[in-house]
Amino acid sequence: EIVYFYACCDRAASYPTLAADDPTVEDPAADDPVGAGAADDEAVSSVAPAFRDRFTGRIHSPGRQSRRDFAELSAANELDLAAIDPAFRAAHGPGLRALFTRLRGLLSEPARRDCRAVLGVGPS
User: In which domain, by residue range, is 6 found?
Assistant: First the structure.
């Protein structure tokens, strides 16, 4: 199930709201974009998560666990590439930091640590 969920994601349509209704720190200028110091009860979005299947066009609101699994798999895959390929990291690092900042409420602490280590963001 997670393999299809990951493969079918229309990222452009889905990424902006996948973390909706999950805690986020509303500070776009934060030096710690993956939320090392973010509390789980800080500002919460009021937008429902929307996931678009790029194969069928279906839009639905996946449950929190599905979104957490997706975020963890996304972080693992992207960070593996960024860790071994400096050109990939240089080209996509800022976008990945922005993505994982939005998804930080869905990421485990080990995944957040990996984001900081691979993407060059130190703990605050």
Answer: 2-119
Is-contact 25 38, C-beta < 8 A? yes
Q: How many domains does the chain have?
A: 1
In a domain, 33, yes or no: yes
Per-residue pLDDT of the chain (124 residues; tens, 9 = 90+): 999 999 999 999 999 999 887 544 343 333 444 544 443 333 334 578 999 999 999 999 999 999 999 999 999 999 999 999 999 999 999 999 999 999 999 999 999 999 999 997 633 2
The CA distance from 59 to 84, in Å, is 34
pTM, two decimal places: 0.76
Chain centre to alpha carbon of residue 56: 23
